[in-house]
């Protein structure tokens, strides 16, 4: 079902955890709330679950205003980082718990438990206690318990943070597949931009309680509305250089880059992603002069750090790149892919050759 935040805010005393938030998650979509610690993402999720009351605003699930409803009447299922399993109940009884609360018939209950457990690949663990399970298996039990209820929405708060890197990758894929298969609207809180980018249909980037941008992962990556979003999404992050635009060119101590149709003048920040630059001949046009600082071969590609006037730039180079550290080099950003940001506010400016920000100034509604 569609989930809507309408001007929802939350203050704890004098701390504004969430500034008025207007977001619509379309039915069946997966929205990630992404941001650093303390940005208000958990608060937004807890407000939807009914674990907190908003200071102002309304929350709708489908057509229903649930703002004043008790958590148990909202029909949403939460999955936490901590799993929150009952230690003395078997896996089967943990999964069946929501059905017991609803007093479902025992035969139907057993059948559904088995079905959901098999869906999550834990069908052979039903008799075990949670302490006899690995972290990944426990998280599957928590997911099974959420799924068995057929809730109107799944709310997930950093559900993978307790797992090791390998398992996180595997569960990421499985949660995404399950969510698409079940088609249940999902809100997923994370500070991990890779999780958000890989799993979500839509990402809401938050900072200090304020929504920065609501967009698809591709839009967010291609057209960040400000420096914060630009730097938060993408790894390694976007390279940012301080310089000045004059006579249709960006001037920096490391070099001059021609900007086609740039409407701005004066001091700006110019950004380009590590994959939107290549190594070129020294002394060429539209290059930045630097020095190879670190070379990291990753097998499929090489990450090269270049030092430029005391600043470090990240460049993705092909596998097999083997220039020596300390060598002078010239970096040529793809001019159609550079981003310009206001020096003071950090807001994206109309870009030189690249696409402009898509959601700046528009109401934060689903762009899909
Ligand atoms: P994290 O990733 O660390 O959980 P978050 O983005 O989820 O962070 P929130 O937990 O939503 O952030 O907190 C947002 C702000 O509200 C923080 O400044 C936090 O200290 C404050 N806050 C949250 N809950 C309470 C509370 N119960 N009482 C007082 N302040 C709170």
Write structural notes for this entry.
The chain has 368 residues and is of the alpha+beta class. The protein folds into 2 domains: 3-222, Rossmann fold; 237-342, Beta Barrel (OB fold (Dihydrolipoamide Acetyltransferase, E2P)), CATH 2.40.50.140. 23% of the residues lie in helices and 34% in strands. The protein has 8 helices and 21 strands. The strands form 4 sheets. A 6-stranded mixed beta sheet has the order 6-7-8-3-9-10, sandwiched between helices. A hairpin with a 2-residue loop joins strand 9 (202-207) and strand 10 (210-215). The chain is elongated. It binds adenosine-5'-triphosphate. Adenosine-5'-triphosphate binds next to strand 2 and helix 1.
Ordered list of secondary-structure elements with their pairings:
Elements: E1 3-12, E2 15-25, E3 30-34, H1 41-49, E4 56-61, E5 64-65, E6 76-80, H2 91-101, H3 106-119, H4 135-147, E7 153-157, H5 165-182, E8 186-190, H6 193-199, E9 202-207, E10 210-215, H7 217-222, H8 227-232, E11 239-246, E12 249-252, E13 255-258, E14 266-272, E15 277-280, E16 288-297, E17 301-308, E18 311-318, E19 328-333, E20 339-342, E21 348-349
Parallel strand pairs: 3-8, 3-9, 6-7, 7-8
Antiparallel strand pairs: 1-2, 1-4, 4-5, 9-10, 11-12, 11-14, 12-13, 14-20, 15-19, 16-17, 16-19, 17-18, 20-21
This protein binds adenosine-5'-triphosphate.
